[in-house]
Amino acid sequence: MALQSQDIEKETTAIVDRHEHREGSLLPILLDVQMQFGYIPEVALRHIAERLNITRADVHGTVSFYHDFRSQPGGRHVLKVCRAEACQSMGGEKLAEDVQTALGINWDETTSDGKVTLLPVFCLGLCSCAPAAMLDGKLHGRLDKANILALIEEMK
Q: Is Phosphoprotein there in the keyword field (predicted)?
């Protein structure tokens, strides 16, 4: 069931009330909103800007700058594939193509069944075990086509 805009505003108001007294409150507010809804709804973005007396462009700029914030609902599973140099040098480009083909989506998209969101990231800190990916917060290294396809099958 989709939330109504008044429900989103009510929840966002409670979140802003908890943080607005803090210096630099925008990031903690956005983190809590994302935790609450799974993404930053446009209604919440507008409400946050109004409550903090900043422009919607400032809030949107922050949301779009940090890759962990989403402006659309994500899938039940989030697969982040490293795109940094160490992973690229160890076959990361081919691995990325294999993942996109297997899921039938591109970067920053969610499968039509809502199961998986695919995100590019630029270093997971697992350079010695490249290429690497993160599935639902769990790191996986030394990936190849067979074991990335096995991870994808586990999500289904």
A: no
Contact indicator for 67, 50 with CB cutoff of 8 Å: no
In the chain, the number of structural domains is 2
Of 148 and 72, more confident: 148
pLDDT above 80: residue 3: no
Q: What secondary structure letter does DSSP report for 3?
A: P
Q: So what's the pLDDT on residue 2?
A: 64
Q: Which of 65, 100, 117 is the last residue of a domain?
A: 65
Answer for the pair 124, 132: CB distance below 8 angstroms, yes or no: yes
Please state, in angstroms and as integers, the Cα–Cα distance from residue 70 to each residue in 30, 37, 50, 108, following that order. Answer: 10, 10, 20, 9
Instruction: Give the range of the structural domain holding residue 29, as residue numbers without chain letter.
Output: 5-65
Q: Is 123 annotated as a binding residue?
A: yes
Domain assignment present for 72 = no
Phi, psi (degrees; rounded to nearest 5) at 117: -110, 135
Q: CA 15 to CA 76: how far, in whole Å?
A: 23
Q: Return d(Cα 25, Cα 134) in angstroms, integer.
A: 28
Percent of the chain with pLDDT over 70: 99
In a domain, 71, yes or no: no
DSSP single-letter state for residue 127: G
Residue 100 lies inside a defined structural domain of this protein: yes
